[in-house]
TrEMBL record:
The keyword Cell membrane does not apply. Keywords: Exonuclease, Hydrolase, Nuclease. It comes from Psychroflexus aurantiacus. Residues 452-559 form the RecJ OB domain. Residues 79-228 form the DDH domain. The gene is recJ. The lineage of its organism: Bacteria, Pseudomonadati, Bacteroidota, Flavobacteriia, Flavobacteriales. Residues 348-437 form the DHHA1 domain. This is Single-stranded-DNA-specific exonuclease RecJ.
Amino acid sequence: MRWTLLEKAEVSKIHQLQESIGVDKSVAELLVKRGIESFDDAKSFFRPDLAMLHDPFLMKGMDEASDFILQKRNEKKPIMVFGDYDVDGTTSVALMSTYLRSLGFDILSYIPDRYQEGYGVSYQGIDHAKANGIDLIVALDCGIKAIEKVKYARDLGIDFIICDHHRPGDEVPEAIAVLDPKQEDCNYPFDELCGCGVGFKLVQALQMKLGKPQKEIYKYLDLVATAIGSDIVPITGENRILAHFGLKLINSRRRPAFKAILEQTKKKELTITDVVFMIGPRINAAGRMKHGLLATELLCETNLEKVKALAQNIELYNASRKDADRSITDEALKLIKDNNEEERFTTVVYQSHWHKGVIGIVASRLTETYYRPTLVFTKSGEKLAASARSVKGFDIYEALESSSEFIEQFGGHKYAAGLTLEESKYEKFKTRFEEVVRLSINPDLLIPEIPYDTEIQFKEITPKFIRILKQFAPFGPRNMKPTFVSRKVSTTGFVKALGDEGLHLKANLVQEESVITAIGFGLGDKKHLMDSNQSFDIIFTIEENEWNGTTTLQLNLKDLKESD
């Protein structure tokens, strides 16, 4: 493991912030590293305020979109609300469908079939709209590159309003309005909204045009927060405000769907991480194993009996997803060992029977195990389809481009991609991809990295420090949970191996006169370092552990090594 100090903050900025808000140096350093450099920055960061949400009409196309929808209301015309099958898409459709129905619209919610239609706006969806007498489709979390499909719809007399957050191509679809803050000529102040966030801005605009109070639509922020966390967008700026108040809603007045999903949890207060790992996978499981529309139906439903039945079905899909994920991962690991491929620069595996809905998850797991660019293939119709995952610092999209003579089509970005190819070209592709990565990757990138914020002493971990640290939440990209290094640490003598085969560690650690309990998941093989009489260095986050109604402080160890 490489321990890498995040870019150093300017000492003068740290001192200025220390003086202006009256915090310790270590807290000021954490803040400056997150772009918080003044009293006003700190106030916005620590005291999110819904009044600070940007005016939705600053977004290009918002006037046209809201006017056109309200015109349809006057005409009493039905609308199709179309969204992707992942968490961002299904929450977007749930939010928009519920809101528009509250205004009296006749709404047809539509999520494309992951396997029959694929990602984004589909011809089948447009045909379904036509068959149901619909002449307006509001597309959420997709559509920014659907040039031909929007043209096809227009030829059928169907208009589009697009609410997307993905980067546009050289041209955008000819829609009534395209709402996407990543458009170069859009002057909206924050361009990192998720699809559900863009949908919420449209709802805000409609509420304003109707002269209704904004507080009436804050009940949808639980959906927005779930999408923000699950879609891994930066939790800064407007996203931080939306996530903060969405989480408050989840923890105070849970919608029936979330109550049913979270029925078994004993946690008093959920974090954004809990939402991502407890709610997100279950919503995604519907689209992976059955159909994403089932997730949207659950999120919209208010009848408790129906909610319970839908939640039970989605729990079954999630169990099937976990079983498929586990068995395919085990098979893939065995394949790598049996084929003596453990020392390669890439992982490329294929079995025709693997479930297409989970190969992306399996690719991520294999990347965690071998930490190298990874592709997991399965059969999809007459072709092979793959999910690709990379390691930090290596552009897998470029590597695929360099291997493209064997690929039929591919898309994605630096760290994740999807592709299809003919089965007859699989072995040639596998050889070429290995060669491309071997010749282009910096070997250091094949060693897992743990970035950390700063070094601290145990004596700095005071109740005040913990209280301030908790206020850094919600955590996510560009505001990750602070990670620390402490050096020359030893144990009090209490060191215990936990779990099957002693995979985990628990210990009481001491530095000078300060003692703190620590847990190290997956660090059982480092127990000998704690058992020796030598001091060691640790890299960790600070957690609160809830057990039997009692909350205690503990360090969550990421790694440890001998002190110099």
